[in-house]
Specification:
Tetracycline Repressor, domain 2, 197 residues, elongated, 0% strand, mainly alpha
Amino acid sequence: MSSDSAPAAVPGPASGTRQNIIDAVLRIIGQDGIAAVSNRRIAKEAEVSLGSITYHFATQHELLRESLLLFVAEETRHFTALADECPDDCLDIRQAAEVVALVAGGDGFDSRHIAPFELYVQAGRDERLRAAAAECFAAYDRLAARILTRLGLPDADRMAPAVVAVVFGQQLRRLATGAPMEDLVDALLVLTRRTGG
């Protein structure tokens, strides 16, 4: 487990059976919550044997932790690639906010993307998951700080957690109400302007 001061190691892509198991866990959690996760259901959903689940993951805690970390690692790689596609001279505050809003509120917000919210809530109940949740938010914060730095905003490291919180808050609101995230761009613009952007 990494310390608070050192960046967390970002897991690489899982392979084969392990990836199928993790994908199944995220789908199950997103559809029916953590209470619905059982080895039998995972095996059926992932189309693997019961024994392969315990071969790859010794405990349910390890399975939940690994699923959360791998999901965030994949999302971080995706967002980083998006940020890298745009040269420095084309990225301004409004464009960055629009890209974030598009990614945060895009059509891909399915049960697999709901699962991390369930896992973050579970981390509030199970302190063994808190370190993984902290690693996940640290990855989001680092990515936000990187984008804010490219935009030339002062105190990007200090501002990044607030930007991440706004995005997560808007996503949670969308989940709870079904309302589109139309005001995310405006919220991000207000936040960055108030901090000197």
